């Protein structure tokens, strides 16, 4: 066999090219562009959900009301009202051609500007309406545009039945399948802004649920670490943390945990060992496993989870939405109300260790008691 340019002697190159192709295929799925944020009239009797936004992205030039993939000097605050379609398309928030259809598409039906103080005032009012208030903060991952993050959170919040308007923290992802290194730098650049948002929320009455996906999990842990180093340990303890398919080196995660100190509640980590996106991340960096792809049935992993006060929850039984198997949480949100009614939600699990979402998606069971681990 010919050896042109030593390609035959570099099998790792083929692996990287193959994984890059997988990212490219996933990126070719229909995604909402700036046109998806053009305000529309709300459909008659439409259900409308509000989403608050704090973002380090640069605003797009008027008349656009969205944000680009470029970083901004300072944080922008907004609110968006989104109408929920009665019959969503199979692909959820997306549409390709023509005008959006209120019957099938998520539409922006209202929006406005806020500043830091007015956002906190509105969130305080929202929390005051409930006996046990909680605000969900969602931090998206790699390869997200602003419209995609906004509309996806509106969809997730609606399907999960959150009681107060969720908050999107959107950092300047380039929304490109080959922009991994650039996205990682922009995420790290945004950690102080996220830390400030969480600190502000920690001073309000009620709880904060920090829900982070993929690279957003790394950003979130860095923000919590920043808060702890500032001496804001009570605000850290008042934040419930769920990391979904976290793109974090396992050794880096261990060091981040050490900085946080004792927590009132273990951090929940949703994992799947067949996650192909995290396999690529590992191959392109340290070669060590990513936190979101650990094997919960490994006794060493289970023991480490208990010692670190972490809940590892395997969600491999949830059908993936793409060949990368990296966004199972999109389907998990639809199951959340069933889990809540059966007492099997993530928040019902208060002990560190390893767990598995059962094959019916109706409950969470501990590895040691259900799978025979020692």
Could you walk me through the main structural features you see in this protein, from its secondary elements to its overall organization?
The protein is α/β, with parallel strands linked by helices and 374 residues long. The chain has two domains: 36-208 and 215-234, no CATH class; 245-374, no CATH class. The protein is 35% helix and 21% strand. It contains twelve helices and eleven strands. It has helices at 11-27, 116-128, 146-160, 180-189, 191-202, 215-229, 233-237, 250-260, 276-283, 299-307, 329-341, 367-370, and strands at residues 47-59, 67-84, 107-114, 134-139, 167-170, 207-213, 239-244, 267-271, 310-314, 353-357, 364-366. The protein has an eleven-stranded mixed sheet with strand order 3-2-1-5-4-6-7-8-9-10-11, with helices on both faces. The longest helix has 17 residues, at 11-27. It is globular and about 55 Å long. The N and C termini lie far apart (50 Å).
Essential attributes:
374 residues, alpha/beta, 2 domains, 12 helices, 35% helix, disordered N terminus, disordered C terminus, DUF900_hydrolase, UCP033909
Annotate the secondary structure layout:
Blueprint: H1 11-27, E1 47-59, E2 67-84, E3 107-114, H2 116-128, E4 134-139, H3 146-160, E5 167-170, H4 180-189, H5 191-202, E6 207-213, H6 215-229, H7 233-237, E7 239-244, H8 250-260, E8 267-271, H9 276-283, H10 299-307, E9 310-314, H11 329-341, E10 353-357, E11 364-366, H12 367-370
Parallel strand pairs: 1-5, 4-5, 4-6, 6-7, 7-8, 8-9, 9-10
Antiparallel strand pairs: 1-2, 2-3, 10-11
Helix pairs in contact: 1-9, 3-11, 5-6, 6-8
Protein name: Esterase/lipase superfamily enzyme
Pfam families: DUF900
InterPro entries: AB_hydrolase_fold, DUF900_hydrolase, UCP033909
């Amino acid at each position: 066999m010919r050896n042109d340019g030593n390609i035959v002697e570099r099998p790792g190159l083929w692996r990287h090219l193959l994984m890059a192709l997988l990212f490219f295929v996933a990126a070719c799925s229909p995604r909402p562009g700036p046109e998806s944020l053009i305000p529309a009239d709300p459909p008659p009797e439409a259900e409308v959900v509000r989403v608050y936004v704090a973002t380090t992205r640069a605003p797009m030039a008027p008349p656009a009301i969205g944000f680009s993939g470029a970083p901004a000097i300072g944080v922008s605050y907004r609110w968006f009202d989104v109408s929920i379609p009665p019959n969503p398309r199979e692909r959820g928030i997306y549409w390709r051609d023509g005008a959006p259809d209120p019957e099938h598409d998520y539409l922006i039906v209202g929006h406005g500007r806020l500043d830091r103080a007015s956002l906190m005032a509105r969130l305080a009012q929202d929390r005051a309406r409930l006996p046990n208030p909680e605000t969900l903060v969602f931090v998206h991952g790699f390869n997200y545009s602003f419209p995609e993050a906004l509309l996806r959170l509106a969809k997730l919040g609606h399907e999960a039945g959150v009681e107060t308007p969720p908050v999107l923290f959107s950092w300047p992802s380039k929304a490109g399948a080959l922009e991994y290194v650039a996205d990682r730098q922009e995420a790290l650049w945004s950690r102080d802004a996220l830390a400030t948002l969480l600190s502000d929320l920690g001073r309000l009455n009620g709880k904060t649920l920090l829900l982070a996906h993929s690279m957003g999990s790394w950003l979130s842990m860095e923000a919590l670490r920043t808060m702890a180093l500032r001496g804001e340990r009570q605000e850290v303890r008042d934040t419930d943390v769920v990391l979904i398919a976290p793109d974090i080196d396992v050794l880096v995660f261990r060091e981040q945990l050490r900085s946080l100190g004792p927590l009132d509640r273990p951090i929940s980590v949703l994992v799947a060992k067949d996650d192909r996106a995290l396999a690529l991340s590992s191959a392109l960096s340290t070669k060590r496993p990513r936190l979101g792809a650990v094997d919960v049935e490994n006794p060493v992993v289970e023991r480490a989870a208990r010692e670190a006060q972490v809940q590892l929850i395997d969600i491999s039984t949830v059908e993936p939405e793409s060949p990368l198997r990296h966004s199972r949480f999109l389907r998990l949100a639809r199951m959340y109300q069933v889990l809540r009614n059966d007492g099997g939600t993530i928040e019902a699990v208060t002990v560190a260790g390893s767990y598995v979402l059962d094959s019916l998606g109706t409950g969470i069971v501990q590895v040691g008691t259900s799978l025979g681990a020692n």
